Amino acid sequence: IDECSDGFVECDSRAICVNLPGWYHCECRDGYHDNGLFSSNGESCEDVDECEMGRHNCANDTICFNVDGGYDCRCPHGKNCTGDCAHDGKVKHNGQIWVLDDDRCSVCSCQSGLVMCRRMVCDCENPTVDVMCCPECDSRLSMQCLHQNGLLAYSNGETWVENCQQCQCMRGEVDCWPVSCVPVTDCEFSVVPEGECCPRCVTDPCLADTVRNDITKTCIDEYGITRFSGSAWTKHGTECSLCQC
Q: Where does the EGF-like domain lie (predicted)?
């Protein structure tokens, strides 16, 4: 279950919900870090002071000014600052917008010496939207299901068998139920072979997993004594031989 997309989770405004197999967690957004309390809803996320830590790109006589969730590069009074930004060793002009080289889903801009980077806004109504950055806009992807091992993907309606359960991908969610087996009613001894899910009839009771004991069927031992079905006894003259009817 994707608790994040289903609206089960409300993270703090300083955190973002991240789905995990079988669980989720509220991860601090860029510009915030956890204060060590690690609250489940992200309340322990606090602002990172990029100015104090030196994690800023202010240049051209601008001064770093910390703001909630980021920082600003401001020009001191009386100085003529260009408003250009330094980013990845390159100069970006004031007002310039670009896509990160190592992340095509993030857009950056230079505003008065301040570099602001954020995830691309997904507009599913736009026919040219990048589905790699916005998978929720691709109906084919949203309808797929992951196999239990996390390696295989199934499309809507596909079925498979896993651990003796019949599974089916139903509009992006996996639904499983026990494999239906034909009941073995016409045999006394049955066994479920390794790697299979349904029982088979066998003639040798020593190979059987289950034995239906019919007490009306009896055995005659070596002394002519009648033994009931299901009974066991030690063979006369030896302590190491067990007999069973």
A: 1-46, 47-82
